[in-house]
Amino acid sequence: MDLESIRLLASAIAIVGGSLGPAIAIGWLASRAMDAIGRNPEASSKIQTSMILAIAFAEAIAIYALVIALIIKFV
């Protein structure tokens, strides 16, 4: 196995590992937010705002994983 193959494999592992957690977190956050809105529809705007903020933070983790994968691949 040459160095380029190892870089590609490491890059793939980094992006898969780094995007799996945020994907699960976003699904869980949306599910729990829908449950909360179903129980208390009057608070839907507050719940939605908090949900979007939490999803943005989870998505930032996936972006960090993408950056790490690109660094592994090209450096």
Brief summary:
Belongs to the ATPase C chain family. The protein is an all-alpha fold. About 90% of the residues lie in helices and about 0% in strands.
Structural class: mainly alpha
Task: Average the pLDDT over all residues and give the rounded result.
Answer: 93
Domain tally: 1
% residues in beta strands: under 5%
Largest sheet: none
At the fold tier of CATH, the topology name is F1FO ATP Synthase
CATH class descriptor name: Mainly Alpha
Query: What is the ordering of alpha helices and beta strands?
Result: HH
Organism: Candidatus Portnoybacteria bacterium RIFCSPHIGHO2_12_FULL_38_9
Transmembrane segments: 6-30, 51-72
Pfam families: ATP-synt_C (PF00137)
Protein name: ATP synthase subunit c
Topology (elements, then pairings):
Blueprint: H1 3-39, H2 44-74
Helix pairs in contact: 1-2
GO cellular component, one term: plasma membrane
Family: Belongs to the ATPase C chain family.
Protein name: ATP synthase subunit c
Describe the structure using short key phrases:
0% strand; F1FO ATP Synthase; 75 residues; 2 helices; mainly alpha
Structure description:
The protein is built from 2 helices and no strands. It has 75 residues and is an all-alpha fold. Helix 1 (3-39) runs antiparallel to helix 2. It has helices at residues 3-39, 44-74. It has one domain: F1F0 ATP synthase subunit C (F1FO ATP Synthase, Up-down Bundle), CATH 1.20.20.10. The radius of gyration is 17 Å and the shape is elongated.
